[in-house]
Amino acid sequence: MSFGFAAAAALAMVVAILAMAFELYRTQARRFDTFTIFLVIFYLQCLAPAIVILSCLAFFCEEKLTLGNVFFDRVYEAVNAEHAMLVAGFMAVFLVFTFLIYRVLVAESVSHPIYRLKIDAPALRLVAILGLLSGAALLLMLGGSLGEGYRALVRFRNSDAEIARSFVTANLFSLTQTFLLVGFLGLFIARHWKLISPRFFSWAAVVAIFAVLCVSRRSLLIPALLFGFTLLLAGRLPKWSHVVVLGLIGLGVLYGGKPVLSYLAGDTRAVALPTRAPVENALYVASDLGITVTESLGTVALLDLPPRWGVDHLWSLLRRVPEGAFGFEDPFPERIVRQSTAVFMGPDDQDIPPGFMGMMWLDFRWVGPLIYAAFFGVGLALIERVRRRCEIDLQSSAVFALALFVFCLPINTGSLDFTFSVDMIMLTLFVLFVLRVERVENQPAGGGTASS
Asked: FRET label pair with 305: which of 236, 265, 287, 444, CA 20 to 30 Å apart?
């Protein structure tokens, strides 16, 4: 056993237990709030996977763990106990200071609602129809029929050289996630909401179509997560049994989803799951779920770059400016995501970002968690203060759940490249198109959420 890896795993476990206990105590007499959703996301993408990953590396360090994934295997061969402690320590410091900043900024916020958020049903239906037509057009462009087009779409996403990629098909594909996220709002479009109703199931079918068009395992899980976040923000607590069942289904999708998608693309051999030892299966699923942890370990172990001082996040924003329209060639340096990809795998591979804790280290070294905590603490507090100005119902909760999901996207990558992307910009425009804001008149003083 490696005591260094075990110490890192123990630190992650202690932080996870204390954070959960404190959050349950903090929200005991109040509704769950913005920080609760952030904490759930951080648990799923960082803390829980880190506990499994670091434990596997601690107790099976003398064995050669082969996962069949070139990137994972390369990282776990290179990482040592010091790298593990750095990543675990960064998670702990970041989480503590994010909450402290959030708590200070929302403690005195007014909780009386003065606005009502409503989802415009005709506008949302129009966007959904546009999305379905867009998806059908994409499939027909890639194949002679919808079925052939979908098989080609799976290969298209995997950067198959035999599938032609154009500006139109690339952008239509990037918009599939946009329509998935906007379509999610339709699940709560009914004024008198019922889980068992024709309207709910019709919108669930639309969301399912968009999820399938994304040809991604995570896209099958994102609507379920957003649904849970919405219920939490609206004060409707799901049953623990339902959470456990959905969690097991999610792990199954992560483990076996890729072979099934490959099978749909025509690779009949891919339906056979790779043979691994139980510990390798656990490490593989944890690495897939907590890809940002694996990327962070790889960054501190393999990426030798001077401090970035946050400039890559500025480039991510400025790259949205169409410099070509002004007669300029691309004036920006190579994306940090491409630099990390070149080191991890090769210059021609798909993007492999530095990871959330890894980007903290690249940007500001030892003070990275504090600076990132300041950004997230302030951002979460601003979202919560706005939320407390709105009536709390399922429609407003769905909108804020979606806003939190987008705000927390960097946790999965460490880079803002995927936040300031075309699909997220279009998501913002579509949400503004379907959202209606009304002023609430003569609300009683106790109509909002309690202060944290």
From this structure: 287
